[in-house]
């Protein structure tokens, strides 16, 4: 291949600057940081998937591909390899790591957002082309790197599937009233509001896997109630005082006439998954529809329902568009003592996770929520002791028990999303502790995409699950909220689904 001079000195300087910046992955680290910090949705996921794919590709290219591939001397035209003249290229090893990382990042980003991936193609072309232009690589090197990077990016689907962005399916709730101007709506503003930072994006990925919710810490003040009154001016908004049980406040409001003299017809909550679960349990008991305003950090349930923001949720309530959603219930008790019932809309978890939440709460003021969560998870995994339980009367030794409200996907990996909100089943998964090196085998199987065939991982669906802990009482986490220690848990689906307002799909 012959390389000639670039007619534009400015373009040559730009390429040289880009080429140098691409060293050590600085270009794609900067792009990823921008995407992650820019907001929510596919852009943030594209940034995280892209930087992880680029890092993995760079490691493979330097540690495996280059040492294993034969050294090939590249003979270029007699003019010399470098654009400004000078000695010809020396022999290189396939592939180009710069091109590989660029292809990996763009391919991974395109999985989450095709439009974003297309917009990054010129930058990737500039990084790869600069390697050829300045004689650092040949066209063959760049093409080999691009193939390697795209392949590794595609492999990320095996351990981190691309989550579908469409709302989960559910039957329409024809009986849900159109609230019009908001008369009869009692809504509590208990939001953990705030735009997440880069580390919180990592939490968005691992949170559903370990049951971490975004509402298990003291909430921050929500946005002004005027946003609610702008669309539903007659809605009754409750802003609870710190330390006050807002569920009791909402239930008391249901027992008395509305301020305008009418009867309460629906309840709502501005907050994250923990607050939503508490109100969903009340809505199920009282037989009223639920309005969910996604004012938490992650809003897993709202995302599954199809509520992207507060205005769209309020508009759906105004117009009467709703679907029927299952609510999970768990009866919690101790032998020879009373029992209480907790609701969950996403997941419940038994094992090391409640301990992780407690440690995170102790550390998060100093380190921040997600760094503290990562450190707490590492601490718990290192120090965890097996848990002996009876599942429907059969004894097992486990590390962790996961119970999902509805069937989660993918079946062979850690649960990430659910296709339906009205499946009427529990998704039960647990990690066995009675086989050698179970935690290591679980990690290897998860990373290699073979979890569905692993002996250490059990997944099944149930309509009801009885759990008895053989030993001291332990904590249970429901949508991130740690419940009081107990040794008996009975999981089930509430007899009747709850109507939840969401925008009309038509």
UniProtKB/TrEMBL annotation:
SUPFAM superfamilies: Acid phosphatase/Vanadium-dependent haloperoxidase, NAD kinase/diacylglycerol kinase-like. GO terms for molecular function: kinase activity. Pfam families: DAGK_cat, PAP2. It comes from the Bacteria. InterPro entries: ATP-NAD_kinase_N, Diacylglycerol_kinase_cat_dom, NAD/diacylglycerol_kinase_sf, PAP2/HPO, PAP2/HPO_sf. Residues 237-333 form the DAGKc domain. This is Undecaprenyl-diphosphatase.
């Amino acid at each position: 291949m012959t390389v000639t001079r670039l007619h534009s000195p400015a373009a040559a300087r730009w390429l040289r600057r880009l080429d140098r910046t691409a060293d050590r992955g600085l270009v794609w680290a900067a792009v990823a940081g921008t995407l992650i910090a820019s907001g929510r949705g596919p852009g943030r996921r594209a940034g995280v998937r892209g930087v992880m794919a680029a890092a993995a590709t760079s490691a493979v290219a330097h540690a495996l591909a280059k040492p294993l591939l034969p050294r090939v001397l590249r003979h270029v035209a007699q003019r010399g390899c470098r654009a400004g003249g000078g000695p010809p290229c020396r022999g290189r090893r396939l592939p180009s790591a710069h091109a590989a990382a660029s292809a990996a990042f763009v391919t991974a980003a395109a999985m989450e957002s095709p439009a974003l991936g297309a917009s990054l193609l010129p930058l990737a072309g500039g990084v790869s082309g600069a390697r050829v232009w300045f004689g650092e690589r040949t066209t063959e090197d760049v093409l080999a790197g691009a193939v390697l990077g795209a392949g590794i990016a595609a492999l990320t689907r095996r351990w981190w599937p691309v989550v579908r962005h469409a709302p989960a399916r559910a039957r329409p709730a024809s009986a849900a009233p159109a609230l019009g101007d908001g008369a009869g709506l009692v809504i509590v503003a208990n939001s953990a509001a705030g735009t997440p930072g880069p580390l919180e994006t990592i939490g968005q990925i691992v949170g559903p896997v370990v049951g971490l919710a975004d509402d298990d810490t003291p909430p921050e003040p929500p946005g002004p109630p005027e946003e609610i009154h702008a669309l539903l001016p007659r809605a009754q908004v409750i802003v609870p005082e710190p330390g006050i049980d807002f569920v009791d406040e909402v239930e008391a409001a249901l027992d008395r006439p509305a301020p305008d003299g009418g009867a309460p017809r629906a309840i709502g909550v501005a907050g994250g998954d923990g607050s939503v679960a508490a109100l969903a349990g009340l809505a199920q008991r009282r037989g009223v529809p639920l309005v969910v305003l996604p004012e938490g950090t992650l809003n897993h349930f709202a995302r599954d329902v199809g509520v992207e923001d507060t205005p769209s949720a309020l508009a759906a309530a105004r117009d009467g568009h709703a679907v029927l959603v299952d609510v999970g219930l768990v009866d919690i008790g101790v032998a020879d003592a009373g029992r209480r019932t907790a609701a969950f809309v996403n997941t419940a978890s038994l094992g090391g996770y409640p301990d992780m939440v407690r440690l995170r709460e102790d550390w998060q003021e100093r380190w921040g929520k997600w760094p503290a969560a990562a450190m707490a998870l590492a601490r718990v995994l290192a120090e965890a002791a097996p848990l002996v339980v009876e599942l429907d009367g059969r004894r097992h030794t486990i590390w962790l028990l996961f119970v999902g409200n509805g069937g989660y996907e993918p079946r062979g990996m850690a649960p990430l999303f659910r296709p339906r909100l009205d499946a009427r089943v529990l998704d039960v998964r647990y990690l066995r502790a009675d086989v050698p090196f179970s935690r290591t085998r679980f990690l290897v199987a998860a990373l290699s995409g073979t979890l569905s065939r692993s002996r250490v991982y059990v997944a099944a669906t149930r309509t009801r699950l009885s759990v008895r802990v053989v030993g001291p009482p332990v904590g249970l986490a429901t949508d991130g909220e740690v419940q009081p220690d107990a040794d008996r848990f009975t999981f089930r689906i509430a007899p009747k689904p709850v109507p939840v307002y969401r925008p009309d799909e038509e």
